[in-house]
Amino acid sequence: MEELNLDWGNLPFGYMKTDYNVRCYYKNGEWGELEISSSEEVSIHMASTALHYGQEAFEGMKAFKGKDGKIRLFRWQENAKRLQESADGILMEKLPIDLFENAIKKVIKLNEKFVPPYGSGASLYIRPFLFGIGAQVGVRPATEYMFVVFVSPVGPYFKTGFKPVNMLLARGFDRAAPQGTGHIKVGGNYASSLKAMKIAHDKGFASVLFLDSKEKKYIDECGPANFFGIKNNTYITPKSSSILPSITNKSLEKLAEMLGLKVERRAVPIDELETFDEVGACGTAAVITPIGKIIDNDTDKEYSYTKDDKPGKISTKLYELLVSIQTGDTEDPFGWVEILD
Ligand SMILES: *Cc1c(COP(=O)(O)O)cnc(C)c1O
Question: How many whole angstroms from 101 Cα to the centroid of ligand 1?
Answer without folding.
Answer: 20
